[in-house]
Each structure stands twice: as structure tokens, then as C-alpha cells.
Amino acid sequence: MDSLTFGATRFVRHLMDPSSRKIPVMEFEVAKILEELQFTMDQFIDLCILCGCDYCDSIKGIGGLTALKLIRQHGSIEGILENINKDKYQIPEDWPYQEARRMFKEPDVTLDIPELKWTAPDEEGLVNFLVKENGFNQDRVTKAIEKIKSAKNKSSQGRLESFFKPTVSTSVPLKRKETSEKPASAAASKKTKSTRGRKK
């Protein structure tokens, strides 16, 4: 959901979920969200920070509904911090919510993009960085590396349509009713039998 706070106009959820889970694809449009909540974009960003984001911890004890209620009452995180019951809610020490807000509104974007060369992955470097330095699961990292190596050997990139199963039509096409004409001899024979049956 952080993509909306960065300025994305739409967010699609559950698009890549397996069909066995039977979860419908959900589309969120930020303009409609702001209209429904009657929020400014700044208030929406503060709401997302209170609910939890990648850049700072949230206030313990404040979930989504409480965060929504507090933003409606006080208008911003600053207003909430001035009025919140600090005995009930534990505010993180040196809480960097302002820096998180700045990251959403003024993200650090690299404009000078170097040329990308598709080479074999540095397996040792990836394991050292992800597993030893950042605590990722080694088995998952190893499997991801194998997927990268396998994808590199494929001749072509898959299209988006390949991720979806075709919709099977359950309707049966109507067939034209065939009209068969009985032979004249058969009709005459039937008429004769009917006439004989009436005689006494």
C-alpha cells in the first residue's frame, strides 16, 4: 500500500495470488480514497505512517481504526502527539515520523540510470549481503538465486497474459433445428391406416 503514499494513482492487490485461494483482485484508487475519507494527501500519508510503514515503527496500541479516528479528530500526527494519552499509547523514542513523511513526499530518486547488463548472479555476494548482514533466510535466498539462473537461460520473457487462465465459456451455442420432411408414401400409408380403422 506504500505505493499510494508515494503518489501512485492506483494500486492492484491479489493480482498474482494463486487461483486456488479464490481471492478477488482488488483495485484501490487514491483519488476515490481521499474523497471517501474526506482527507488531504498529507492526512492520508500520516494515516499510513500510523498504520505502519517501511520507514519507522508505529505507535504501539494504535491500529487502523484508531489511527483513522485520531486523524479525523486532530488532523495530523503532530496534533495527535499533543493530545494523545501517553500512558495508554507508547510512542517510540526519537520517532522518525517526519523523516518517513519526507520520504513519501520527496523520495530520493536516482535519475542517472546506468546501463543494465544481464550477467550471472554473484551468489556469494548475495548470500553475504542478504543472509549474513541482513538476516534473510538462507534457503529462500538460495532458491531465489536458482530461479534467477533458470530465468536467464530462457529464450523469451513471458507475457502478462501467461499468468492468467483463459475464461471458459459455459454457454452452449444454439443449433439450428433441422426440419425433416416425411416421404409422401409414408404419409399416404399412415392416412390409409387411419381411414381403415374408422370402418366397422
UniProtKB/TrEMBL annotation:
Alphabetized PANTHER family for the sequence: FLAP ENDONUCLEASE 1 (PTHR11081:SF9), FLAP ENDONUCLEASE FAMILY MEMBER (PTHR11081)
Protein name per Swiss-Prot or TrEMBL: XPG-I domain-containing protein
Family in the record: Belongs to the XPG/RAD2 endonuclease family. FEN1 subfamily.
Single GO molecular function: DNA binding
Keyword Repeat in record: no
Residue numbers spanned by region Disordered: 169-200
Signal peptide: none
Keyword Magnesium in record: yes
A Pfam match: XPG_I
Domain XPG-I: 1-54
Biased composition (Basic residues): 190-200
Keywords: DNA damage, DNA repair, DNA replication, Endonuclease, Exonuclease, Hydrolase, Magnesium, Metal-binding, Mitochondrion, Nuclease, Nucleus, Phosphoprotein
Example GO biological process: DNA replication
Reported cofactor(s): Mg(2+)
CDD domains: H3TH_FEN1-Euk (cd09907)
Organism of derivation: Aegilops tauschii subsp. strangulata
